[in-house]
Amino acid sequence: MFEIIPAILTDNPQEARELIAKADGVARLDARLVKRVHIDIIDGVFADNKTVDPSALNEVDHSLLLDFHLMVNEPVRWVEKCVRAGGDRIIGHVEMMESVSEFISEVTEAGLSPGLAFDLDTSIESVEKRLLLDVDVVLVMSVPAGFAGQKFDPKVLDKISELEKIRKTDPTPFKICDDGGVTIEYVDDVRSKGTDEVVIGQRIFEGDLAKNINAYKKAA
After folding, report:
1. Is the dihedral of CA 178, 83, 65, 166 positive or negative?
2. 115-152 tens-digit pLDDT
3. What SS3 class is residue 16?
4. CATH architecture of the domain formed by 3-219
5. Catalytic residue ranges
């Protein structure tokens, strides 16, 4: 089922907790609308920006599944923090990994679902195909990673099509997730190419979250 995932990118721990609570309120009323939230973690090395640390969410009470999107140097070093913060999936950027296979193994051994993220200008061919078949989700950026509010770049559509072809060879196919700048005007374009999930940042939280998610789903 096609899924819209609200994303949180902030350096304010209180704001992060409040947005999780807002999404959790919608999930408790209608779990079909929201079941997971995407938390952007940026360390100031990968991008010239810095967000909350996963530890800020250690004591937060909610019913959601949490995705931690690690835009950090050596994501493998952040796995334990994400486990303690109640993560479900840990998605690391391949550009910042010395060993992609080590990251996948570390997340899997921790009992969580591994994912790989590709920045806008990073080719899928930069990672061995066999490693893509070992993850639960492959995330492609449709803006340069690191900042909210950027404009969608349609060149990501070819990358989504490429992933769609690769996963047809996988007996347990990974999900394809698109992240960055996807407006209602573009959501059907990414869905029709094979995307299973779209991450939407601050605009999804503006106003009525449930209505905003429904609007995206109808447009897809």
Report:
1. positive
2. 999 999 999 999 999 999 999 999 999 998 877 778 89
3. helix
4. Alpha-Beta Barrel (3.20)
5. 40, 179
